[in-house]
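Morning!

As promised:
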Amino acid sequence: MRNRKLIASLFVYGFLAVIVLGFLIPIGMMVAGSLKPDERVLLEAGTLRGYLPAEMNLQNYRDVFARVPFMRYLFNSVFITSAIVVFGLLVNSLAGYALARMQWPGRDRILLVVIALMIIPLEAIAVPLFYEVTLLGWRNTYLVQIVPFIANAFSIYLFYTFFLGLPRELEEAAKIDGAGAWRIFFTIIVPNAKAVFAAVAILTFLIQWGSFLWPLMVTNNEDVRPLPLGIASFYSLPPLQWGDIFAFGVMMVAPVLLVFLVFQRWFVKGVATTGVKG
Amino acid sequence: MPRDLKRQDCLNAWFFMLPALLGLLFFVLLPFVLAVGLSFTNLRMGSPLPTEFVGITQYQRILTDTAFLHGLLNNTIFALIVVPVQTILALLLALLINQPLRGMVVFRTLFFMPVVFPLSLVAVVWVLLYAPGPQGTLNSLLEFITAGAWQPRDFLHDGAWALPAISLTSIWQGVGFQMVILLAALQSIPEELYDAAKVDGANKRQQLVFITLPQLRNALIFVVLVTTILAFRLFDQVQIMTQGGPRNSTTTVIYEAVRAAFASQQVARGAAMTVVFFTIVLLLTLLQRFLIKHEKAIE
């Protein structure tokens, strides 16, 4: 019996290990390729040598900074994404709270509208939105990449369901003490809702950090373009040097990967919450 | 409660709601209404001609447009490849990682890692993996596995291989997301169900078929729906890896819509394409609601 269990678990480990190896090929190639001379990257792409360190140096990283405004892309990405996350958390949590815990005429109808809007993906409205912001004269700005994405029906819904589940007693005591709605929200509700704030922040961050279609449509100026467009235009910028591209890629993903590894539990929890409604 | 206190409450609620509501109205609802409205006109940005109502002309045109029809077909093929493969792989990984063995968190981390990679970066890296000729990564791997029988090919410039290649890339990036959702669903199955089954003498396979899978039903429906909708949103990988080619074999609905609105300024035509896209998303969502409701009715 014990032997059978051991064999079964060895089988599980072996199977997972094989899949993990396959999974790591693209990442390993990117990291190894970023450290070696450009001409060797393509040459060794199909060999095990492709993943082994040889003639390691940081020349590719220096080349990235010399060839494109990497720091500019990075700043733009960080600025745009954090603005959306911070304003989004504020605006959507307030809305979720109003829908879940406050009495006001029209609430049920607004809730239905929010739920209905949840199923409209950006792609379904990208073309008229593009037309709208062109009329507003917003193209090639930070504004156009931030403002349309602050209010989010799905974030509101996540806050709404979380606040519904909080015990009523939390607010009752404060109300008797004469605290107003704003004070109750910021001093009592927010500290008790860290999990949902973290989940919404992480989901928003993941989606916005990788945003590609929208900035591609509304910007044509490197000054306001984020990293995903940076890598795409670097890739199409001759001469095609894979070492440089991979160095760009490593620098683009390293900060996110670091944050992910540190806050892993929250990432996994955050993603899992999206499935709860299913 | 005194009347002005009640009014104060109501006012507060509207203040709480207003910023989000304005955002949704201006940047979701208005463009959505515009998408439908514009699709019945001939609006072209920068055109000197006045915009006119043209009825269903745009729809008639796009439904005879080869590139757009290819896009619809490609999205469908892409969904038919990605949804089953990715779901089964995610389910398998979730079941394995859910075993009470040491070190499973490490595997979970590794499988989830690609999810934090932006699709644009993933697409660029995979272009090199698909490099043509015998020294390309995938070509040499396949050559090794088949002991030399594999003929190297140029995956991304081959009409038969380009779309499957993009599918594999997407599966690599997305499977961790599904896995985590299924893992959470697995861990929320009450332990008592398994205890009862063991008392009744059910073996591991019977437990899987009669307890685990039925309990995962809603999570699986959700995951399949989300992945199918994602499949119809396909854009980034196509834009970077193939630009819709070769000969429309990887173009998509959204790729064509963006090209119409953006490259040739035909906003109305692009809007009509996105309306078709949204109709598909809506039908898929209604199907999901129906399936989940249906199950509740049985209970």
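Residues 2-57 of chain A form one domain.

Hope this helps with the figure draft.
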